Amino acid sequence: MNIACIGNVTYDFTVIGKGFIKENGKFSYSEKTIKTGGPACNAAFVINKLGNPVDFYGQIGNDEFGDYVYNDLYNDGLGIEHLNISDNVMTPFSFIIINTDKATRTINSVRSPKDLEMPRIENFTYKTNYDYILTDGKYVSESSVLIDANPNAVSIIDAGRVNDGVIKLCEKVDYIICSQEFAEGITGLFLNQRYNNDSFIYQKLKERFPNAKGITITVGKYGFICEKDNVVYNVPTFDPKAPSIDTNAAGDIFHGAFTYALANNYDYYDALEFANVTASLSTTRIGGKDSCPSLEDIKNGLDNDDFSLGRRK
Asked: Which residues contact 19 (CB under 8 A, 6 or more apart)?
């Protein structure tokens, strides 16, 4: 299967420690990582690691961070023919702090003003032979063109934040995997079991995006929300029997694993189960994209998963 991922790529500098910083303080860390990141890029790494070649579409600056990113993508075997190198933008940089006490992360990003205001891939070229396309919504125009140029491809969006461009793409794609922030922003309601809003919010999303074949809401450590046979389920995260220490990139890994599973003949619910197990296992190790488990570990997790909406159970 031919797969394309289009969207954000960053140079990630991550420090790891116990506890979190306080304003006007000084802190020292004994552990750090330098990796390539970004939602669509992390998803592409996952798909490639699990054994399916993938083309990545994005943009980096002609700078030292861009050199690192380019070499990292190349060495990991991603298709980078359509990675644009620009003299007009800087390679996005993220400073990430991991708090292993609470398995939380805080991301501080720096990027060019034009890359914030209206992201565009300056020299956009594309192929027309894709079977699956995943976008993280950063490059709206280019994502739309790529999807239109591949009318038979299954399209998926990682809808993280509410803006006009992401909404436009959600109206176009086959599968929407959105964050809690996106679901609440679109509906103006809050996901809270105390108010029993899950089903109501989900129905509002279906009404807003009637062309989507499937909508999933990811809710972090609480798993994800989906629908089967007109019943809305909140599926908990898979229990990996090991402590969660780093949630960075777990959502990106979920999207990449879901796309990989669809491309390898899993049905929708089995693909969600596959993604849930993969993302949950990733939180037990440090390393962003490198925390993606092996295919063998994922299959062992599937054998011990209680998820029951798919055809496996």
From this structure: 99, 101
CA distance between the termini of the chain? 26
**Three-class SS state of 177:** strand
Q: How far apart are CA 236 and CA 238, in angstroms?
A: 6
DSSP 290: G
DSSP per-residue letters across 36-101: EE-HHHHHHHHHHHTT--EEEEEEEESSHHHHHHHHHHHHTT-B-TTEEEESSSPPPEEEEEEETT
Specify the pTM: 0.94
- The alpha carbon torsion through 273, 44, 248, 161 (nearest 10 deg) reads -90
Q: Tokens 């009637």, residue? A: 210
Task: Assess contact for 49 and 292: CB atoms under 8 A.
Answer: yes
Summarize pLDDT for 158-173 with one digit per residue, the tens. 999 999 999 999 999 9
The conformation of residue 264, written as its DSSP 8-state character, comes to T
Q: How many residues does the chain have?
A: 313
In the chain, the amino acid numbered 33 is T
Q: Are 133 and 156 in contact (CB under 8 A)?
A: yes
pLDDT of 194 > 50? The answer is: no
Is residue 51 left, alpha or beta, with left meaning phi > 0 and alpha meaning psi from -120 to 50?
left
pLDDT digits (tens, 9 = 90+) for 76-98: 999 999 999 999 999 999 998 88
The set of residues, in sequence order, having a beta carbon less than 8 Å from that of 56 and lying 6+ positions away, is 4, 5, 6, 9, 40, 41, 44, 73, 78, 79, 80, 82, 83
The token duo for 40 is 């669509």
Encoded tokens for 73: 């993508």
Q: How far is CA 15 from the centre of its chain?
A: 21
